[in-house]
Amino acid sequence: MPTDDGNILLSRAETGGTHRLLLLVPGAAGSGASVHELAAFPGGGLRLVAGQTARTAALAFHKTPAGGTAVWRLSGLAEPPEQVAEVPFLFAGGVWLDERGDLLALATPYGQRTRTVVLDLSRGIVSPLPGLPEEEHLLLAAPRAGTLLTVRDSGGVHRLGVRRWGDDGPAVFPEHLSMIEGAVAPLALDPTGRRLALSVTRGVRSGVLLCDLEEGGVQEIGPAGGTVLPAARWSEDGLRLVHSAPDHPPRVVTVPATLAGHFVADDGPTPWAPAEVRRFDGPGGPIEAIVYGDPARAARMVLALHGGPDAAWPLAYEPLFQRMVAEGVAVVAPNQRGSTGYGAAHRDAIRGAWGGPDLADVLHLGRVLRAEREPGASRPMLYGASYGAYLSLLAAAAEPGLWARAAAVAPFLSGRELYEDGPAPVRAMLDRLGGRQEITGDDLGPRDLLRLADRIRLPLLLIHGERDSIIPVGHSRRLRDRLATAGRPGAEFAYMEVPGAEHDPVTGQDGHLVLERLIAFLRGASPSAGSRR
Fold this sequence. Notes:
By secondary structure, this protein is an alpha+beta fold. It has helices at about 175-180, 320-325, 345-350, 355-370, 385-400, 415-420, 425-435, 450, 475-485, 510-520, and strands spanning about 10-15, 20-25, 35-40, 45-55, 55-65, 70-75, 80-85, 90-95, 105-110, 115-120, 125-130, 135-140, 145-155, 155-165, 185-190, 195-200, 205-210, 220, 225-235, 240-245, 250-255, 275-280, 285-290, 300-305, 330-335, 380-385, 405-410, 460-465, 495-500.
């Protein structure tokens, strides 16, 4: 986290769970930065929230051994933090309510729900946010104006509300905020509290809406392609956003204070490969996909499946895809049925049918892409992570002759198996999306990878983090053992378990090693080359 005077605050996690707070002070030109250790917190559970004034560069929230939270003030100087509060519960979020930097709104567990509370740093106490009902939650605030943006669940529909700080009356829920098509996320309020910036996502693209909370006007701004990330700040100088596109890593862009309706950003040449959006005719309707390179003429091409399943590929910079296309591998990243951003029918098509409509879409895309390939070209490959890994292995089992090879990162065996040993949030998702229900009415039968292992007759690379807290590594270990005894004549496979890695080993501490192994496999190397078991 940067400080006002150009220093950098770092929270560094170390093996064993200790978090160290460090201050990096840049040196003169040509010299390195000096590093000052401010504090060390055992047991993990440390996060930072940016401060509001010069005397508070940041607040550090540390989970105590008793399950509460200790709050420390960081000045941004090379001096120890100052403890300002300790409370017997946990916090999330962080919205400043005043310009003095004394009142910070936070979310805290309350029974089976969460509620908004106010931490008064001047007194070190916590109290409920005045006038806010338990079923309403704070999202944003304009401290100078006293405007609060809240959200309320009304029968499964989230409605945005506006209220004033200190006003005990009900919030106003503007109708024009409820009529926006697409997935909406609040970004920032302007200093006057009159205008609200929202991101709106439709399919793979997202843009910015500027909403007048008093008169009801809505203006859409921004470039035609790309993704707006959920981070923004609105000051007197204008609205600053974080924007990304396939050939642009995330960077800060500015909407001037005049609100001329465009971003100010450096959109000059970049070394990164561009991507296009292509719409395929699918068995259940259109399938939108992000395409890198030329899938018809590239030496190799891969169908990349996202995790979730309630997620989607955004039109944003993706380092993995950039590396693939740099190595001559074209990429098609589809948002098949089950993906978000295309309406309820598309999203809910796999509810109670994991590996049903989405698998049909993947197989259809595989056939289309194979038919487009030049004569004699290699067949499409499969890549997937998490749910995408599960889906890619199902596709390999359903039509093994359609694919050249498959790479799966952190797959699970089946919804039922994952429910047995997955963490509580994953079980809740399985309940919500019907992930435990089995499909029995087709030739493939129940979508259990142990049962289908004999059908996966193609070169295969399995990768899993040893400390995966979302999908236990035991799923890949069991699949590895089952594949070793399956009747798969001539089909090589390798298993790479990454020591100490979490759910995404490609971006972890040894991610560069995992990435090199993955890229070598996609370029045609034997799965067992450099095997690490």
